[in-house]
Amino acid sequence: MVSAGELLLLAGLVLAAAATGGFYQTNHLVTAPQTTQFLEIGSNFKATCMIVNTTEVTADDLYWKLSETTVSKELYTKLNESAISVTVPVTSVQSEWLFCRAKKGKSPYVFLNTGKFMYGVLLKKGYPPGKPENVFCVAVQEKTTISSTFRCDWATVGRQTSDVPTKYTLNVVVIHIRNYSVSTEGTHAQVEFVDTYPHFMTLEIWVEAHNMLGKIESERITQDANSFVKTNPPSDIKVISEKYFPTSPLMNWTQPINKSYGKLKYEIRFCTSGSPNWTYVPKGDIATDIQSFRLQSLQPYTEYITQVRCQLGHWSDWSGTTMKTAEDRPTSKPDLWRTIAEVDGKNERRVQFISKDPVFANGRIITFDIKIQEQKNDNLQWDTILVNGSESSDGQRVITVLKDMLLADLRPVRLCVTANNSVGTSPMASLFISAKGREDSPVKGLKVWSAEGKLWLQWTPPNGPDLSEYVVEWVSGEQTDWQRENKNTRLTAIKGNLEGFVRYTVSVYSIYSGRIGKPASKEAYLKEGAPLEGPVVRLNDKPGRNEAELGWVEIPLHRQRGFIVNYTINYTGGGETHEVTVPGNTVSYTLKSLSSNTKYDTWINASTVRGSAQSSTHSFTTLKYAPGEVESIVVGVSLGFMFVVLMTMLLCLYKKDVIKENLWPRIPDPGESTIGNWSPDYPLKAETLKENCLSGISVLDVDVCDGKSVFEEDKACLPLKKDKYLSEEHSSGIGGSSCMSSPRQSVSDSDEGSDMADTTASTVQYSSVVASNGYKGQTPNPHPQQAVFSRSESTQPLLDSEENPDMVIQESSRQSQRFKQENPAEIHLLEMDQQQQEGGVESLGFCPRDEESEQTKPSEGQSAASSYMSQREGYRPQ
Amino acid sequence: MNGHVKSMHFQRFMETATTLLSLLLVMAFDSSRTVAASRNQQCGDSVQKSLKLSRLLQKESVDLIKTYKASQGEMSELFCKVSVNNVPDPNISGLEPSEKIASIYTHLQEFFPHFEWVYEQQTDLQLPTSPLLSDLRRFTAGSRNLAYLIKPFYQSLFPNVPLPERGPTTLPPPQNIFQQKVYGCVVLKTFKELLSNVSRELRSLKSQVCRRRTHTNTLF
Description:
The complex is a heterodimer of chains A (878) and B (220). In chain A, 18% of the residues lie in helices and 37% in strands. Chain A has 878 residues and is α+β, with helices and mostly antiparallel strands. In chain A, strands 2-9-8-4-5 form a five-stranded mixed sheet, with no helix packed on it. In chain A, strands 10, 11, 12, 15 and 19 form a five-stranded mixed sheet that branches. The C terminus of chain A is likely disordered. By secondary structure, chain B is mainly α. At the A-B interface, loops of A face helix 1 and helix 4 of B.
């Protein structure tokens, strides 16, 4: 259905089109409205599109596009064959174009003249203006008058868009005189009154907010112009503290503006220096248009900040000054306390009485009067203690040491104290110290914790009677401080200036009518942190083979910054790192299962709840052997050796006869020997020898060259050439054998022999066969005859063989071995036979000494040669 | 018996009617008192504001004269002791409050052209930055404001009596500098005197006019 209004709109469009025929000569579509539209977000917008001066398209060929989106046909309304309308919701904030377009495919004309079949309207969106609120106007003082500049501020309400900005107009009407108006896009504006501020005139003020979607006014303010005046604060403020009115100083000031502008109201406040809490003088107590006021109920000798402000319209800023009230007599007791230290070795206590100025000292405390009163011997004399007069800079009361004294453990004492300032004396305070061990019961269940930057304490009261108050004491190093709490207190916070990271010993003393009870104490930190340093690590003893005992020195208290909850011991060695955590009260730990002969690095982390600190690294090397291990080995070996020796000795003792018989065989005494004569049982065959120096020498297993004997008995023999005797080839003879053998070699060789007795016999020259022509100086028969051999039956070694042992050691070994295997006499004889068969006696070997003997006694050698031959023949039958 | 009953009913009706009438009278009286109080308060506020402004101007006139003297150079004290013709009369005329208020308004109006003239003269005599010029402008504006306050006050009090129009202003003939300085000082001093008279008259008018209006309303 097409409404009558829409038809009227169409008619209007047609008329408009006719009136602007030039435009429609180029465009065949036109919309209503035609120009930019400002729309309220959330509303609906209706537009109509009409076909003008063409029959190429109809309303059915038209469509709408909103920006790049084709509007759904459900929102279209066909008015007639040449007009169509659309209703679109206004949602987004961004401005958009709404186009009416015709379908291109209708005809070639439309296709070729697309621009003529399109018409758009720009939609700008926004919100209607909000009502300005909180309009606040002010005219400030300028020198001695009020400025004619009148400034107003207000708050905006509602939203704005950049397409539809809101402007504000400040309207100020001086009733019956003049209107002022100024526009702005901000939230404040100012008007300039002509020539002067309209004092005592009535102003009407309002702010109008307006934009393309509407306008709205704020509430109208109709007030006297002076109600918008903000004067300067009062000036030249002085506070006079009078001696006789220490609690009521007089405050003076100068009005900021002449009172002909109006009566000024005042407001006064004050507080002690550093306090954030102001005390306001009741407004009813302050008259208007005054320039002085007497403050009341201030504390004497206290620094105050006093401030005042005035009001003609708006309140001025505050202005003020700092003053100190006059002194007055102390009105409260001095805060008396004591510290007690034990004295070593004596039954005494060192008591120090200390005091803070009275809470209401009302002046500077100059002196303390003290009286020490012992129970049975009252001392009624008052002593005066001068006070240095220094005041604490941090607002804390100064502690004055009143008295130091030694007090017997079993002796109680009472101290009475008054404090004096320049005006008067305070009430008396007293403190009673009981005999040691007789203090009343302490509070129970004391808890101390840190919260909100304070140390809090909670306790359960003791059962004792006459409880009057509590004293909370906190000690850090040499510093002691305390505060008093009334007897009903169960929970309190320490009011002193505590420092973080400092350990405090907090004690609660119950006070029984001046008598101090036993304390309950706890240690606490206001704030904990990581230690500043780690503990000093060392070894308590030398490291062992598999263990080492670590010890460490506690971190100095002021560097702990918290309770040490545990120590973490780290040690690394042999490529492995180990970690052990021990409780915070531990000061040593034994590392076990260490590797021997290994270097270990160890360090300790001391931890609080807030962090930890690491010690420096300490290195040590474990031992290769455990202590005593070496000693055990040495002792064991020694014992074993001693056992062996002992056993050997015992063996020797028990088997000495056997040993003696084996080691020292019984040797016949040569002195007891007799010479026997025997004749060989076969005829000797005379042999022609080139050299027969060996005649008369027969050696049975002779290891030592009995050169002497040879020299003495047979030195005429051995006419052999020297070179022959030195030759190896010739040493295989009997003479060589006898010369080169040694007794030592023979003894060693004897081990391999089958018969110990025989072997032993072979090592010593206990027998000799001599030529029959003589024995030891006996002159042999110089004539050739049948050889007669003499044999000694003695087992005594020949002593001469020991005189030159070195000369015969090397050469004798071979010959000695032969004697081990066979009967030496037979071997010699067999060899001699063999040598004779091969070439005569030239191959016989002789020692050089024998050679010398031969050279010096050549004549004797000849006789010896004959003896030798006889020996051979004569020996065989044995 | 019936007649007695009827009489009793009528008597009760009369009592009720009397009570209601009395109540209405009390309400009407109270209402009139409220309206009268409101009007009286408006009257008092207007007079009070005018009085305060006149006092402020009076104080400012003292300051202004000091400033004026200070800015005129030597012999400034002498300037203000010389009498000058053509300066409006500071005295308020009339016997009735309306006449007095009208006189106040008229006298204030009469001074404004002289202020303008003095300002122009001093503009030629002083540097543009002279505080005298700004003080003169401020004082003139404040004086106009006083006149603006008096006028609605008068019109509210005497709506049927129009304020008399300001008569022709006679400004002084061309003057030399000395005459200008004397003239300016005399104008300021005279106006200060006028303000003093205005304050006094307003104080008396406040008690007279506003109370009388209260009585008038009460009688209605």
